[in-house]
Amino acid sequence: MRKTLSGISPYKVKPEPGDIIRLDNNEAYTSLLSYVDFSELEKTLINRYPAESTEALIEAYSKFSGFPQNNLLAGNGSDECITLICQYALDPGDVVMVLEPDFSMYEKNARIMGANIEKIALHDDFSMPIETVLKKIEQKKPKLFLLSNPNNPTGRLYEQQDIEQIIAALEAHGEGILVLDEAYIDFAGESPFAPKLLDYHNLIILRTASKALGMAALRLGFLAANDHLIDGIGAVKPPYNVNTVSAQIGTQLLKKPELLDQFLLIQLAQIAELEELLNEFADGVEGSILYPSSTNFFLMKLNEAKSLTDFLYEKKIKIRYFGCPLEAVRISAGTKEEHEKLRAALKEWSETYAPSIR
After folding, report:
1. Burial of 336 by CB count in 10 Å (0-12 exposed, 13-18 middle, 19+ buried)?
2. Which of 23, 45, 101, 35 is nearest to 244 (CA)?
């Protein structure tokens, strides 16, 4: 094993019983598969390599998202896009900057390439410490700065001005690249950076079909950048990286923008419902803080986050636990029925365990 891999743990995903309510992975809570024409899939030559599988997919995503078709690459989820960017940009010893907390795969992919990680802690309210960030960029001259906006796991949407300052500082000090992961931007509104993508020399935008578009099982991610970056990253992209069946299903759904828009509105209603019930819970539990969110999930700090996580799992409700230093839980939006079960379980936990915590 290479020395740079020392201490890196596998990302293990264990199967869950079919009756578990999954509020832990920020996925859409229902499937759009009934809107797929499977007769089209019957024409798929599964004995052939998917040489052109992404052309129609990229064309459909370009029309759906507004990104120029020639400035898009498709990946096996945005996870693969992160890997490709790191393979393209990083030499051993390069500096990669990330925020803390943020999506763990940024640091993991950078470490695999032998990069040095520079972490910058967010403020207590999870806002951007922009002055610290700009100073660190000047000092460390990072090759890459990877950040999610809105942030995962905090749900925070950063100020446009702060991100613009980061882009400018990276270009001025070492010609670094900002990788702006907009996996959850659909829940927050329009991205101010997408229409100006080609105006930037050092900006890469990541998108995914796994969240608001409800296609997590298809593993479809997209990378948008200027011509120079697209050509460079395309040179390290493996052939056949998106399988034909996923590409065809994704293309069909992306050609139904009215359906996807309606699906988003339904999800936004459920997010509002989840926020209401979590506010009700947090108000009754001493020491708990529910943070505002521009995503389909909410982060809540509380003294006994692990106790709550374990209790809910016994009730067949799975949420995400974050240990020290956060000591928090992250809960995704679900169906009305799932929310009612969550509400009842939270009420039982607060009445049974919370009094002894106070």
Report:
1. exposed
2. 45
Nearest to 200, CA basis, from 222, 178, 181: 178
Residue type, 55: E
CB 32 within 8 Å of CB 217: no
So what's the pLDDT on residue 355? 63
**pLDDT digits over 121-167, tens only?**
999 999 999 999 999 999 999 999 999 999 999 999 999 999 999 99
The strand pair at 220-224 and 72-76 is best described as antiparallel
Q: Coil, strand or helix: which one is 146?
A: strand
Look at residue 47 in the predicted model and tell me its pLDDT.
85
Q: CA 79, 85, 90 angle in degrees (round to 5)?
A: 125
Q: Mean pLDDT, to the nearest integer, of 9-20?
A: 77
Question: How does residue 46 score in pLDDT terms, banded at 50, 70 and 90?
Answer: confident
Quote the CA–CA distance of 275 and 266 in Å, as a whole number. 15
Neighbours of 112 (CB within 10 A): 16
- pLDDT above 70 covers a percentage of the chain that reads 98
Cα(89)–Cα(91) distance, integer angstroms: 7
Q: Coil, strand, or helix at residue 116?
A: strand
CB 36 within 8 A of CB 249: yes
User: By the 8 A CB rule, do 266 and 332 touch?
Assistant: no
Q: Give the number of residues written for the chain.
A: 358
Residue 230's contacts (CB-CB under 8 Å, 6 or more residues apart) are 70, 71, 72, 73, 223
The pLDDT score that the predictor gives to residue 14 is 74
Which pair of structure tokens corresponds to residue 24?
Answer: 């832990």
CA-based angle 34:206:91, to the nearest 5? 135
* Those residues with Cβ within 8 angstroms of residue 355's Cβ, 6 or more apart along the chain or in another chain: none
Show Cβ contacts of residue 249 under 8 Å, excluding neighbours closer than 6 positions: 33, 36, 41, 215, 218
User: pLDDT for 198-221, tens place per residue?
Assistant: 999 999 999 999 999 999 999 999
Q: Compute how many other C-beta atoms are within 10 angstroms of the C-beta atom of residue 36.
A: 16
What is the pLDDT at residue 40?
86
CA distance 182 to 194: 10
Specify which residues 75 forms β-bridges with: 221
